[in-house]
Amino acid sequence: MRVKVDDERCQGHGLCRISAPDLFFAREEDGNAYVKDENVPAGKEDEAQLAADSCPELAIEVE
Q1: Which residues contact 50 (CB under 8 A, 6 or more apart)?
Q2: In terms of CB atoms within 10 Å, which end of the chain has fewer, N or C?
Q3: In this predicted structure, what is the pLDDT of residue 56?
Q4: For residues 30 and 39, what is the distance between their CA atoms, to the nearest angstrom?
């Protein structure tokens, strides 16, 4: 599974970081989310999907 954050859509709400704190991080300059690695580690798939489902801006894509 892969996960991506659309920087154009992200507004920095932080719900992804609450849902999956091991996968999503906040940039210091604007608070927008990013992932260090688009490849979701085994066992973290549900967290990645929860983060995508929780995003009010629909800025997270999971494949």
Answers
A1: 19, 20
A2: C
A3: 98
A4: 24
Confidence of residue 10 (pLDDT cuts 50, 70, 90): very high
CA distance linking residue 57 with residue 41, whole number of Å: 24
State pTM to two decimals. 0.93
Segment 16-26 mean pLDDT: 97
What gap in Å lies between CA 43 and CA 32, rounded to an integer?
A: 25
CATH of the domain at 12: 3.30.70.20
Domain that holds residue 58: 3-62
Number of domains the chain is built from: 1
Distance CA 26, CA 38 (A): 15
